[in-house]
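User: Can you predict the 3D structure for this chain?
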Amino acid sequence: MSFGDWLTAQGRLPLWHWLETVLLTLLAAALSYAASPADPFFIQAEFPWVLFAPALLALRYGVLPGLGSVAVLSLVWAVERAAGILGSQPPTLYFMGALLLTLVCGEFASIWNARLRRVESTYRYAREKLERLTRQHYLLLLSHDRLEQDQLARPVTLRVALARIRQLVAAGTQADPNDPLPGLPQMAALLAQFCQLEAAAFYACVAGEPESAIRAAIGAAKPLDPADPMVRYCLEKKALAHVRMDELSSGPGARYVVVAPVADRDGRLLALFTIEQMPFLALHDETLTAISVLLGYYADSLQISRQARVVQRALPSCPIEFAAELVRVQRMRSEHEVPSSIVLLRFGNHPESAAFAQLLRRQLRDLDTVWELPLRAGTVAPVPDLLVLLPLAGAAGAEGALGRLERALELRYSTGFDGARIRAYDLQLGAADAFVTLKLFLDQHDVRL
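Assistant: Here is the predicted structure, written as structure tokens:
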């Protein structure tokens, strides 16, 4: 960080930080005067207690608030000298020592604040990744439990529904890039098929407020009733509401059965989904959970699709998951200088290449994202090359990952990369655009997409 950037960041401190700086310094000066009226700055004492104020402020808020505290103390000293409390000779060495102590404390605080911000950024990324993995695990568990009992009654499974959501979002975005809710009619049809809905509707939201006009409908749906208690609850809590909830006092003639929000990870309300009619036996916890999961997956797909569109324009065969993860690590690198790496594993003409690839994939971390590149022509045992994105891993992390993979090969097959005819290349994502860097990396190693 340059000096200008550092000075700008210091100048963005909240106003109450500067107010606290002035008040605490004046309080320290007042206490010092009360304790020693003849020597309020403790110049002749064994320890200058009043300097605790700028030191603590520098440790808490940084260099500039500490220097501001020293400036306030200097002003207090000038006032007390004009009042005849202190001598006329200025204590130059005293204030020089105060400045040096404040600078040391402020630099210490700045370094550790930067480290804390990087740790917090890493923690937030890992937490988001854990939430995504938890949601995916729940989706897999729910799909497995309901597959047998719903195979005959339901024409599609949850996995097929999620795949269709990705397809309809991608197709809708490609047809109209400016549409904030692409593929919404197809999403309504999918929900009607999956959840056995009879009358339901989507209403677009602008600045957190739903429009009364229907954006996409199932059956004989009517315009939105914003005064309905379930609608108000859903808008206030940004959570699904249904007629069986105890905190909602819906009468027997209530219009809506379920009201669910369509919100992204940042909490922005994109649309409102209301169900007016559905079979009584279909209204159970699993259906409500499925509706929440499908709507959340639709909102996540919208956000990911917009961010990853640039990657897929340059690399059409790039999976949406890999492109989205690349967007996230690029943002972490540019905002907080958290490093990430990419590893390319190219498999040669070895009879056991398929087994090697399967083993190496099992050794990857849960954080890592894999892109199976298109098959190369001219190989005896065609195995897709693997492009692995290693979040939160710098040069040492990429080297350690390659070493871990090679040790796994040695333990299982008693051979290394050379014996397995595997070529490994690594790339560290720097300050340059990650998409351009990846494209140049693939071109450098003659990867044809």
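The chain has 13 helices and ten strands. The first strand starts at residue 199 and ends at 206.
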